[in-house]
Specification:
Blueprint lengths: L4 E5 L3 H14 L11 E5 L6 H7 L4 H14 L4 E3 L9 H4 L8 H8 L6 E5 L2 H5 L2 H8 L3 E3 L3 H16 L3 H17 L4 E4 L18 E3 H13 L3
Parallel strand pairs: 1-2, 1-3, 4-5, 4-6, 6-7
């Protein structure tokens, strides 16, 4: 197949590496030639997306567009962005090339059993309703951490993951997830691609954890094989 998948990464680098590694592991390949040709644009110097959105500036856009044009010039015909918060610029970026939206990928994985969905992510992802706005239209009831939980647990835990302090971040994120479960969540979306680096399904028995990285990978494989 004459297809190349572009990965607009670096937000953060560990999440991009996780995407590539799991894409290889999940691709139904029997030999090298069955894998998906992939080009990673890994730019960790893109300004923080959540901070930019909350400050009402547009600082990441030029960096994101540089990556889009670079991947397109390298022959990519479809792009994924393993960063949830960067999808607030989706409309502008998708004018230039096909991009698989991470929220659409997550929605494809949800079932009728997931009636009340907990969502955790960065300050901007939660405050600006990246998931809530989309999933509510599909009939799901979304609940999110309180402002206090975001300030004291979720956002600090994401920052700790970026500094490679996984153990401490896991404890904080599990507290936030358990609080969502106690408020009725029967599934929780890990709506930041840093979070799955600390939280796995076996850390939270009893309800599904919807990993946005895994969902994006599944959509990428479907795109490549035209499923």
């Amino acid at each position: 197949m004459n297809k190349r998948l572009g990965v607009l990464g670096g937000m953060g680098p560990a999440a991009s590496a996780e995407f590539i590694s799991k894409l290889i592991a999940k691709t139904p390949a029997k030999k090298d030639q069955d894998h998906i040709p992939t080009i990673l644009w890994n730019n960790p110097h893109i300004p923080d997306r959540s901070t930019s959105l909350l400050n009402h500036d547009n600082l990441p856009l030029s960096y994101l567009l540089e990556g889009i044009h670079g991947l397109k010039a390298a022959g990519c015909s479809c792009i994924v962005i393993p960063c949830n918060t960067a999808h607030f610029w989706f409309d502008e970026l998708s004018k230039h090339i096909k991009i698989i939206h991470i929220v659409d990928s997550v929605a494809d994985e949800l079932t009728d059993m997931h009636t009340t969905i907990g969502v955790i992510g960065t300050q901007a992802t939660i405050k600006l309703g990246l998931y809530q706005n989309h999933l509510t239209k599909l009939g799901y009831n979304c609940i999110t951490p309180t402002e206090e939980e975001m300030n004291n647990l979720v956002q600090p835990a994401i920052n700790l993951i970026k500094s490679n302090n996984i153990i401490t971040s896991r404890t904080m994120l599990m507290q936030a997830i358990n609080n969502l479960i106690s408020r009725g969540a029967n599934a929780v979306i890990l709506g930041c691609t840093e979070i799955p680096l600390a939280i796995r399904q076996d850390h939270c028995l009893g309800i599904p954890l919807i990993n946005s990285i895994d969902c994006l990978i599944n959509s990428s494989i479907k795109w490549y094989y035209n499923q």
